[in-house]
Design goal:
CATH superfamily: 2,3-Dihydroxybiphenyl 1,2-Dioxygenase, domain 1
Strand content: 35-45%
Strand order of the largest sheet: 1-4-3-2
Largest sheet: 4 strands, mixed
Domain VOC: 6-125
Organism: Ornithinibacillus caprae
Number of strands: 8
Number of domains: 1
Pfam families: Glyoxalase (PF00903)
Protein name: Glyoxalase
InterPro entries: Glyas_Bleomycin-R_OHBP_Dase, Glyas_Fos-R_dOase_dom, VOC_core
CATH class: Alpha Beta
């Protein structure tokens, strides 16, 4: 189990810093640092660094094999994030849906797409034993 003294770190490409900052701040992420070649965010308690590298942006993104996001343990947090994404008119890659309906691993999910075509998944499992 994760201990509170650890922060997960993820580095991803971005094509332009200003639009990246706008997207992640609209999502509710706090800008922690900005340099000429990257921006660092508090992404729901973890660290996401967006490196300026337009040549590494996926031209036609697909959900698999590469995406990242948050699995919420509280449904209210999932609902709040979804409502916030709608209110801020963030671009959806996949609208909210239920996956594996009727199975133990059933969960609610939606995907956003950032300005560099990075895919972000947000989900909530009804059975928290299925989180891992």
């Amino acid at each position: 189990m994760r201990e509170t003294n650890k922060v997960f770190h993820l580095a991803i490409p971005c094509k332009e810093l200003d639009e990246t900052v706008t997207f992640y701040e609209k999502l509710g992420c706090r800008l922690a640092r900005r340099y000429d070649d990257r921006v660092t965010f508090d992404f729901f308690g973890d660290q996401v660094v967006c490196h300026l590298s337009p040549e590494n942006v996926d031209r036609e993104p697909t959900m698999y094999p590469r995406h990242f996001g948050v699995t919420f343990l509280e449904k209210e947090e999932y609902d709040q994030t979804l409502e916030y994404a709608i209110k801020e008119e963030l671009p959806f890659f996949k609208k909210p849906m239920v996956r594996f309906k009727g199975k133990q691993e059933e969960h609610m999910t939606f995907f956003l797409i950032d300005p560099a075509n990075n895919l972000l998944e947000f989900k909530y499992y009804h059975d928290t034993s299925m989180v891992y």
